[in-house]
Amino acid sequence: MSVALLFIAAIFLSYSNGTNDNFKGVATLFGSGTTNYKRAINWATITTFLGSVTAIFLASTLVKNFSGKGLISNELIQTPAFAVSIALGAAATVFLATKLGMPISTTHGLVGGLLGSGFLAVGTAFNFSKLGDTFLMPLIVSPLVALILSAGAYIVLRKIRIASGITKETCFCVVDDCDSVSVASYQNQSIAFEGEAHKKFVVETNQQCITTYSGNIFGINAQTILDYAHYISSGVVSFARGLNDTPKIVGLLLVINALDIKYGMIAIAVAMAAGGLLNAKKVGETVSKKITPMDHGQGFTANLITGLLVTTASIHGLPVSTTHVSVGSIFGIGTVTKSADVKVVRNILISWLLTLPVAAIISAVIYWLMKNIF
Question: Where do transmembrane segments lie in this chain (predicted)?
Fold first, then answer.
C-alpha cells in the first residue's frame, strides 16, 4: 500500500512538473513568433523525454541529493510517509501555481517539502546547513547568473551582428564569381556573360544575393539560420530540464526501493510529457508573452544561456531551477531592451518567495496526517 501510494504521489508530482515546466524550454520559440504553440510544445515534449532518459546515466548525484540523505537520519528517509509527504506537498504547490498561470520551480517545491516534513519529524536535528549549501544557494544564485549572462551575451552578439552587417534580410551565398566578364544591359537588368570563374563567399541582402550574381547560388537566409539555431537551443533547454528534474523525483522513489531507477525515470518522463501536452498553455503564455517582447535573436540568446547553465548544473549535480534560469535569462533580455513588464516579473518573484513555505506547510500537514491518522 505504501509503495503504491508513493508511486502515485511521484506520478502526480511528475504530471504537475510537466504542466508548469515543460513549456519553459521553448517559451522563446513561441514568444518570438518563431513557431506556434502546438509545434513548440511537441518539440519540448520530445526533447524533455530524451533528457529524462539520459538522466539514467548522467544524473546520479541529483538522485542522491533529493532522497534527503544528509538532511535527516537514514531511518526517517526509509519511511514511506516522509517521501509521500514531500511528493504531495511539492505536487500540490506546483499544480496550484499552474492553475494561476505562475511559473514556479518544482525544485523549490521539493526543497520546501524536504524542509516541512523534515523539520516536523526531527526538529532542530534537521541539517539546515546542508539545505542552504546544497539546495538554496543554487536556487537563489542561478537566476541572477542567468540574467547577467543573458544580458551580456545579447549585447555582445548584437554588436557582432551589427559589425557584420547582418540583418533579418541578409543571406549567405556561395557563388561563381567572374574575374573578367562582359556586361550588357537589357531592360534595366544586368547580364554577366561567361568568363574565368571561381567560387566566392558573399554576404548581401536577399534581393542583391539573387539578382547581382549569376551562376549557381547556394543561398542560406540568415533568418533561417537563426530559426534553426533557436530550435536547437530550445531543444537543449528542454533536454537539460529533463536531465535535471527527473532525478529529483526519482530520488523519492528510491528511498524505499520502490522502483528500479531505469523504470522509475521512464515512468516519470511519461507523466511529465503528459502534463506538458495537456495543461501547459497558461504558464506558457506568461513566460512567452508577458515578461518581455522578444525577437528571434533575443529569444535565441536567452535559450542558449539557459541551456548552458542548466546542462552544466545537471552534470555537476547542482539542483538549479530551470524556471529560475529561464525567467532570469528572458528578463535579462528585457533589461537590455528596456521592455520588461516589471509588474509581471514582480508577481513571478512573489510566487517564487511563496513556493517554499507553501510546499513546506502542505508537506508537514500531510506527514502529520500520515503518521497520526493513517
Answer: 42-63, 75-97, 109-128, 135-157, 349-370
